[in-house]
Design a protein that fits this description.
It contains six helices and 15 strands. Helix 1 (3-23) crosses helix 6 (176-186) and helix 4 runs antiparallel to helix 5 (131-148). The strands form four sheets. A four-stranded mixed sheet has the order 1-2-3-4. Helix content is 42%, strand content 22%. It has three domains: 3-78, no CATH class; 86-186, GMP Synthetase, Chain A, domain 3; 189-281, 3-layer Sandwich (Rieske Iron-sulfur Protein). The chain starts with a helix and ends in an 8-residue tail after the last strand. 31% of the residues are buried. By secondary structure, the chain is α+β, with helices and mostly antiparallel strands.
Amino acid sequence: MDNQSVRETSARIDEVLDELGQSALPPVMERVEELLRCVMSLYGAGLDHALEIVHDVGGEDAMRRLADDEVVGNLLVLHDLHPDDVLTRVQAALDRVRPYLGSHAGGVQLLGVDAEGVAHLQLEGSCDGCASSALTVKSAIEDAILVAAPDVVAVEAQGMVEPGPALLQIQPFHSREEAAEHVSTGWQHLELDVPPRTLAQVVLGDSRLAVANLDGTLVAYLDRCPACGDALSGGSLAADLLTCACGQVFDARRAGVAADDSGVGPMVPVPLLPEHGGWKAAVPQGAVA
């Protein structure tokens, strides 16, 4: 069973329990809940013994591989057997996507996870008023935390998007169930081979992406120049600056903003995250290039 099937099965279990809660008589529902508790206790005890055997045979490296696997790691969280607490797992998720987040929002700080399972974040830096960059940051953070910390039920974040007192409130992100649906329909797997300091066009479904390798940090944008409408991938990349064939220059590391005072809007960023040796991307809804 792959990761997506696990998410769908988990969501289906929640749906069935909700349906039973609405239709079954209270005594029947109590017996169903007791049965689930017994089954969970049995599987939890078996998983605990399996971990002891793995540790004795394979040591800490084997334990870490199990904990880092998305499916097994989620089971360990479910049975309170994961070696890392929720703060450590959320922080690790943010660290994995920090290079990408930094290119669009300046960074993100974990403030904590409260007793209700809500993770509180502070977005740092500025998206220079770019709403698409804010949505990109939201999608990237949401997916990273969903995978690493399924026990987080929601994410609340705040951060400056332009100079002045206005705050961008992203609260809450999707719940676990909503986020799982969002991830399953929005993210698409792709293979990338973009050497450092180069620019390439990548086809993703009905969209074309311009992917830039900024000395090891991959960032993606819709392959359409805001100034002329032509493909950005036909331009050139020098350091962090992407120059379209029409001559317009954009800062690929700073959310794709224009590098001059021309008044041209920013490039449209696309969330791009590592996934099992490859990559996955999510084109913003309604955005096609």
